[in-house]
Each structure stands twice: as C-alpha cells, then as structure tokens.
C-alpha cells in the first residue's frame, strides 16, 4: 500500500519542485516526506507488536533481565485459556461491556431525542448534560467512592429515600453482588453524554422536510419514529456503540480508582488483570500472551462490527 | 375529492407578511395553478392547505369541514415537495409504498404492490424500483416524489413545481398524465409552477399572487384576455406582454400611463414604422425583436417570414390593454 501512496504523491508533486532539490528524483522527494511517519509507525506500533508476539512464546520476566530466557512455545497460551480466574475476568468484562453499552445507548438516545425538541435553553441543558464527560476518570472514580459511602454517601441516601431501605444496609463497592453494578452506574453516568452527542448529531442530520413528507403521507408520530428517525440514526448509534465498546474493553482508570478490582475479583476487568500480571507479578511472557489474546479478540469483534456498520450505512 | 375554501387567510413569518387576507375557492375537480414570482406566497398557500403550517387568521375548509386546526394526516392531503423530500434510507419501491402503508388505509401487500407498480409505470421509473432513493438523478427523484402523492386518492393534491427538473419530453408526457388523473379521479389540484405552458394547458383556474395578495383568480383565458394589472398580464403569455408608455400611440384613454401589447395585439402592415433588430425562427412561428422609438418590442409573425434584421415593419396596436401609473387596468 505504501508503494501506491508514494506513487500517487510523486504524481501529485508539481514538476519543477524537483529542480529545487538538485539531484533528487520526484520519487525520492516523496519518500523523504513519508519516511518519518513510516519510521515512527514502525518504531512505536509495529515493532512492539512483533516483539510482544515473540515474548509471548517465552518465560521472559522484565524484572530479571539477566535470567536466561527459555522458549516455551504455546505453554503461556495454554495456561491462560484454561485458567478459570481469567475466564472470570473475561466474564466480568463482558458483563460490564454489555450493560454499559445497553444503558448508555438507551439513555443517551432518549436524552438526545428530548434535547432535539425545539425548546428554550436546550443549549444550556446540553452543556449541563455533557459536564460529566469533561471530568478526569480519576476524579470521577474518587468522588463516586464518596457518593457510594454507606454512612455518608449521597447515592445510598437517595436510594434509601426512594425505597425506604436503610442507607447503611448496603455498600455498592463493598458487596460482591453490587460492585459490578457500581462500576456500570459510574461509567454510564460519565459516558452517556457522549452517546447522546453522537445520537444528537444523527437526529439533527434528518431534515425537517422528511418529517413533513411523512406527515402528509399520514404517518403517525409513532410510525415516523420507527420508519424514519430510528433507521436514519442507526449508523450513528452503531458508531457510538463501537466507540464505547472499544473504550470500555480497555477500561482501567475509573475502575481502579473506584474498586481496585475488588471485592475479591468481582470487578477485575481484563485490563486490570493484565496490568497486574505484567507489572506487579512481572510475568512478562505470560502477560504478552494475554495481551495478544485480548488483541485478537478485540480486533476480530471490531472488524465484524465495522462490516455490519458499513452495511447499515450502505442501506 | 372535495371543494376547498380559503377565507381571509393571513400568514406571517416574523416581520414578513407571507399571505395577506387571501380568499379563494377551489371547486371540486378543479385544477388551480398558482402563479407569481418567488416570495409571492405560492408555497405558503400549499403548506397552509396541507396543514404543515397554521394560518395566523382565517379559515380553511375542505369539503365543507373546517380543517384549519387539523393535522395533515387528518386532512388527507397529498403533497409533492419542491425539494422532493424522499426518504433517503428507503428504496424507490418503499418510498412509493410508504403512504399506502398508513394504518388509516388498510391495504394488503398485494394491493400496495399493484398500486406502486402502476404509478411507477406511469412515471417511467419502473426499472428503478429497487434503487435507493439517493441513487437517482434529480428528474427521477422528482418523479418518485410525484408518485408518492399519486399512489393514493386524497382530498386534494398539492404540488409545488412538480415538473421543474424534468426534460421537455417527459414534462409533456406528465402534463397529460396529471391532467388525466385529475379528470378521472375528480380530485382537485392546487399546483404551483413557473411554466407558462403548464399554466395554460393544465389549469382550469389560475390564481395570481403578488406579495401575499391574491390579485386575480379566474380561468387562464380570463387572466390572459382580461388581466387586472400589468403584474397579472405579465404572468401569462409567451413571448411576454410588451409594456410601453401609453403616449407612444394615439387613442389612449384618459388616465392611461402604459399600453400593454401582447404579440397578437400588434397588427403588422400599417401604422408607425419600427425597425427589425433580430429574427428568431422557432419553426411554428417567428419571433421579431423590434425597435420602436427607442423602445424594445417582441412580437410574433408568420413562420415563413422573409424579414431580416434592419428591415422596417409598420405596426399598429390592435385592441391593446391600458394601465394607469400604479399598473392597474384602465378601460
């Protein structure tokens, strides 16, 4: 591919430019422009990837650089895929991913739909709604630990107010059954505005005249929603799901700050687990294999999804 | 099908008076063409009748029922939009079928398919039925837009320049088709156009709008042969009516400031001399551009005329129109 880019760049370079760089052909000039980028890509993306693949077949440990590195073939992969702890973190990640996406899409789309009505001050409301997204995940994680405090936390108080339960009777972060939901709630609180913005762009891309035509064609508001609004915003919705999916697959900061992966392993997402293996236990080879497995998973899912997205766009 | 009555309709958009006290009756089965330049209120009239906009004052009745506050769906109108407004994510077939799938109509799939293919056939887009609406040329989009209105029988058809982006042949075909539909169904048409031929050939009535006011309403012949003003006279006729100072010719009535001469109101062969500037042979007729005492005139002459530029032609007004300083007709 790089060759065709070079060829096109050479073609696009106006004649005469070469005269100023004496002795250099157009092709050489084009290469000299592209080379730094290619070098950078190779250095920071391609080389580490290949190196990681190599390490994943060894028992290398980064904290013992002088120890002898043994070539152990697929043993790392075998151990990871048969490890029930890792399957549990995978499940925790899947649970977190599915629910955050479902909630954020539902709430985000509804908010966008409401904001899209023409009313006074909707710009102000948009700004207010978007605020959580502008905060740092570390800050959000930190202050939600306070909101989740059983004794003084606002969250427990509000839940207690509506359900009548004792606010100190449950702990969102401390309980094995509630902790997975605690991180889902915070992520939804923080990132629903992002989904809303994308949906809003989708809704605003539908011209009024289409609704007017539907109005004249005697379509009810309900039918207009299902036959016009939803299909025409679907590509945007799918894009939002893609962004949120990729983001949350590598979710780290917010959850570390909130629960630190606990209680037990209940909120240990794969990225947290991976970081522990690589930089706390220093099992570099093992962690490399782990990373490659995650990479292949995300890459596979994302390419299937992007294909579906393109199909929807073509419709 | 029903009679449509607009009574004292006024509509403002901010400071602009879009329609000013317009009253008009579209008789059952009529084909009413609205004429006027951009901003005269033609599209606003259609939108008010359709129910997409609400008038600030006045009453709209369809078939004797007051529909002023009703929605477009309740009014049962079909509209062809100037900007087409097709459903971009649907195929041509789905676009055409959309109005028929309204639960108000209760058509089954076979009926819908039959009606869609009938309309597609008539509009010569049958081969494009499975195309996406966005993968069409402008003319094809416009035909789909017409088809979406014609698939059902509403109380009234509202069409906003529906033939403007079609080529001449197709335009002529569709003029006939629309006329046939109107004759067979008896559904009244309210139709906006800039095209003289469409107005003259299709209209049973013409409404002339000027800055939101309905200045004349009548048959095309009435508007053509008995215009109330320079403005109304200029709406119809090809080539356009010539407006000259009245004192150029003898015989102007008192108060007349301008004389209006349609080509057939200029008799050739006697009277004052004028010079031929340009001759345009159109086949069935020949257009003469004349210079008469420093004024330009356009008239029509025999198809086989041997006149050339530079020749001298004698002309006399023949039963011309006279208008006063404000442009109103003087008898």
Report on the structure:
- The complex is a heterodimer of chains A (315) and B (331).
- Chain A has 14 helices and no strands.
- In chain A, helix 5 packs antiparallel against helix 11, helix 11 (221-249) runs antiparallel to helix 14 (284-314) and helix 13 (270-279) packs antiparallel against helix 14.
- Chain A is mostly helical and 315 residues long.
- The model of chain B has no long low-confidence stretch (mean pLDDT 90).
- Chain B has 331 residues and is α+β, with helices and mostly antiparallel strands.
- Chain B folds into two domains: 4-229, 3-Layer(aba) Sandwich (Rossmann fold), CATH 3.40.50.300; 239-330, Nucleic acid-binding proteins (OB fold (Dihydrolipoamide Acetyltransferase, E2P), Beta Barrel).
- The longest helix of chain B has 18 residues, at 168-185.
Which architecture of the largest domain in chain A would the CATH scheme give at its second level? Orthogonal Bundle
CA-atom Rg of chain B in angstroms: 23 Å
Detail the poorly predicted runs of chain B. none
Q: Strand fraction band of chain A?
A: under 5%
Query: Which percent range fits the helix content of chain A?
Result: over 70%
What is the general shape of chain A? flat
Protein name (chain B): ABC transporter ATP-binding protein
Family (chain B): Belongs to the ABC transporter superfamily.
Keywords (chain B): ATP-binding, Nucleotide-binding, Transport
GO molecular function (chain B): ATP binding
Give descriptors for this structure.
heterodimer, A: 315 residues, mainly alpha, MetI-like fold, 0% strand, flat, B: 331 residues, alpha+beta, Rossmann fold, OB fold (Dihydrolipoamide Acetyltransferase, E2P), six-stranded mixed β-sheet, four-stranded antiparallel β-sheet, 9 helices, 33% strand, globular
Helices and strands in order:
The complex is a heterodimer of chains A (315) and B (331).
Chain A: H1 2-12, H2 17-20, H3 26-55, H4 75-81, H5 84-115, H6 122-134, H7 137-147, H8 154-163, H9 179-204, H10 208-216, H11 221-249, H12 253-258, H13 270-279, H14 284-314
Chain B: E1 4-13, E2 16-26, E3 31-35, H1 42-50, E4 57-62, E5 65-66, H2 72-75, E6 77-80, H3 92-97, H4 109-122, H5 138-150, E7 156-160, H6 168-185, E8 189-192, H7 196-202, E9 205-210, E10 213-218, H8 220-225, H9 230-235, E11 242-245, E12 258-261, E13 266-281, E14 286-292, E15 295-301, E16 312-317, E17 321-323, E18 329-330
């Amino acid at each position: 591919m790089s060759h065709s880019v070079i060829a096109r760049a050479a073609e696009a370079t106006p004649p005469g430019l070469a005269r100023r760089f004496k002795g250099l052909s157009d092709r050489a000039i084009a290469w000299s422009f592209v080379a730094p980028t290619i070098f950078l890509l190779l250095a920071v993306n391609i080389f580490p990837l290949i190196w990681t693949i190599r390490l994943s077949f060894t028992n290398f440990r980064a904290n013992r650089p002088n120890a002898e590195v043994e070539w152990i073939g697929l043993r790392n992969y075998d151990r990871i895929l048969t490890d029930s702890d890792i399957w549990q973190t995978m499940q925790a990640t899947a649970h977190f991913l599915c629910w955050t996406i479902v909630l954020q899409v539902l709430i985000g789309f509804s908010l966008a739909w409401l904001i899209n009505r023409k009313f006074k001050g909707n710009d102000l409301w948009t700004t207010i709604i978007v605020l959580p997204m502008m905060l740092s995940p570390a800050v959000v994680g930190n202050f939600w630990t306070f909101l989740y405090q059983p004794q003084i936390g606002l969250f427990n108080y509000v839940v207690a107010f509506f359900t009548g339960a004792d606010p100190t009777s449950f702990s969102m972060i401390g309980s094995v059954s509630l902790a997975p939901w605690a991180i889902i709630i915070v992520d939804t609180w923080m990132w629903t505005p992002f989904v809303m913005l994308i949906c809003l762009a989708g809704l605003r891309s539908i011209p009024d005249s289409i609704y007017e035509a539907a109005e004249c064609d005697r379509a009810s508001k309900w039918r207009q929603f299902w036959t016009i609004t939803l299909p025409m915003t679907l590509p945007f919705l799918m894009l939002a799901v893609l962004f949120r999916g990729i983001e949350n697959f590598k979710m780290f900061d917010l959850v570390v700050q909130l629960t630190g992966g606990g209680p037990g392993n209940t909120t240990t997402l794969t990225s947290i687990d991976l970081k522990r293996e690589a930089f706390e236990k220093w099992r570099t080879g093992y962690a490399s294999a782990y990373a490659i497995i995650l990479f292949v998973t995300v890459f596979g899912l994302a390419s299937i999804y992007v294909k579906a997205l393109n199909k929807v766009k073509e419709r | 099908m029903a009679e449509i009555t607009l009574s004292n309709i006024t509509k403002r958009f901010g400071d602009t008076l879009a329609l000013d006290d317009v009253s008009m009756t579209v008789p059952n089965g009529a084909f009413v063409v609205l004429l006027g330049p951009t901003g005269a209120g033609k599209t606003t009239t259609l939108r008010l009748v359709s129910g997409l906009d609400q008038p600030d004052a006045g009453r709209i009745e369809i078939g004797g029922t007051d529909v002023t506050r009703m929605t477009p769906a309740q009014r049962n109108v079909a509209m062809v939009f100037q900007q087409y407004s097709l459903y971009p994510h649907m195929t041509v077939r789905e676009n055409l079928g959309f109005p028929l799938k309204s639960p108000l109509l209760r058509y089954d799939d076979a009926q819908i398919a039959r009606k869609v293919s009938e309309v597609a056939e008539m509009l010569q887009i049958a081969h494009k039925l499975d195309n996406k609406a966005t993968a069409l040329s402008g003319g094809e989009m416009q035909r789909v837009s017409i088809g979406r209105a014609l698939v059902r029988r509403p109380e009234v058809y509202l069409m906003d320049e529906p033939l403007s982006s079609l080529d001449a042949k197709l335009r002529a075909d569709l003029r006939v088709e629309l006329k046939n539909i109107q004759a067979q169904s008896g559904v009244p048409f309210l139709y906006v156009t800039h095209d003289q031929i469409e107005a003259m050939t299709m209209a049973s009535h013409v409404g002339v709008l000027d800055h939101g006011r309905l200045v004349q309403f009548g048959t095309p012949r009435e508007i053509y042969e008995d215009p109330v003003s320079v403005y109304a006279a200029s709406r119809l006729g090809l080539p356009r009516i010539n407006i000259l100072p009245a004192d150029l010719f003898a015989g102007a009535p008192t108060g007349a400031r301008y004389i209006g001469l349609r080509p057939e109101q200029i008799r050739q062969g006697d009277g004052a001399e004028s010079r031929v500037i340009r001759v345009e042979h159109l086949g069935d007729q020949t257009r003469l551009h004349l210079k008469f005492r420093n004024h330009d005139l356009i008239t029509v002459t025999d198809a086989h005329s041997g006149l050339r530029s530079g020749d001298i032609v004698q002309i006399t007004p023949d039963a011309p129109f006279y208008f006063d300083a404000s442009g109103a007709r003087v008898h």
